[in-house]
Design a protein that fits this description.
This protein is α/β, with parallel strands linked by helices. The protein contains eight helices and five strands; from the N terminus they run E-H-E-H-H-E-H-H-E-H-H-E-H. The structure holds thymidine-5'-diphosphate.
Length: about 210
């Protein structure tokens, strides 16, 4: 039912290190698709369900063992898929999610150094047949991301991490992008918002043309 080869509605995920500017572009994508008559479900991880939002509070603010953190991310994801993503895709809606499994590889795997084989096992357990049709990876150098973060918000547990953590997180995102070139689009997020919107529009128009 959720196999992308047999459906025309799409599952799109947004990824990037903190400070890459993903939130601005999610709002743009959401409006662009809705303006074109797309039935759209917009969600986020960790979170996306009542239980998931409780887990989000815990993982973003409580200190815990690395593997506990990864398991909670996937627990939130399991619920998110069951309650939100799978039913929406099954009824023909499009789904956009602010982060998905690539974030677990990037943050828990790259950033924190968790064994990638364990993350592979969790991915295959939690969503053996579901992958995004498109993953927009907003990529920026670390100094740019840090400057944006410091200027805009109170930092959570991840955002307070050091440069090395984000370097490893970014590297793992780039490794995943190279591993799955058919679904990843790497967006150079150092450019202006207007320039990025032009690129995103082109990518979305390709998907819309497949309907
Ligand atoms: P984020 O989308 O950056 O939220 P906000 O823009 O509101 O700060 O996500 C919250 C954090 O969760 C982010 O630092 C990355 C982290 N995260 C993981 O470490 N692993 C995961 O699997 C997911 C989904 C997120």
């Amino acid at each position: 039912m959720t196999d992308s080869t047999i459906r025309k509605n799409k599952f799109i995920t947004f990824e990037g290190i903190d400070g890459a500017g993903k939130s601005t572009h999610i709002a743009f994508v959401s409006k662009y698709l809705q303006d074109r008559g797309i039935d759209l479900v917009s969600s986020r991880e960790p979170g996306g369900t009542q239980l998931g939002e409780k887990l989000r509070e815990l993982v973003l603010h409580e200190p815990m063992h690395l593997e506990t953190e990864a398991l909670l991310m996937f627990a939130s994801r399991r619920e998110h898929i069951a309650q939100v993503i799978a039913p929406a895709l099954a009824r023909g809606a499009w789904v956009i999610s602010d982060r998905f499994t690539d974030a677990s590889f990037a943050y828990q795997g790259g950033g924190r150094g968790m064994d990638l084989a364990k993350l592979d096992a969790l991915e295959h357990w939690v969503h053996p047949h579901l992958q995004p049709d498109l993953t927009l990876l907003f990529d920026v150098p670390l100094d740019v991301a840090r400057a944006r973060l410091d200027a805009t918000r109170t930092l959570d547990k991840f955002e307070q991490e050091k440069t090395d953590f984000f370097a490893a997180t970014r590297n793992e995102y780039l490794r995943r992008a190279a591993q799955f070139p058919q679904r990843f689009r790497l967006v150079d997020a150092t450019r202006t918002i207007a320039e990025i919107e032009v690129e995103i529009t082109g990518i979305l128009d390709e998907l819309l043309a497949q309907r």
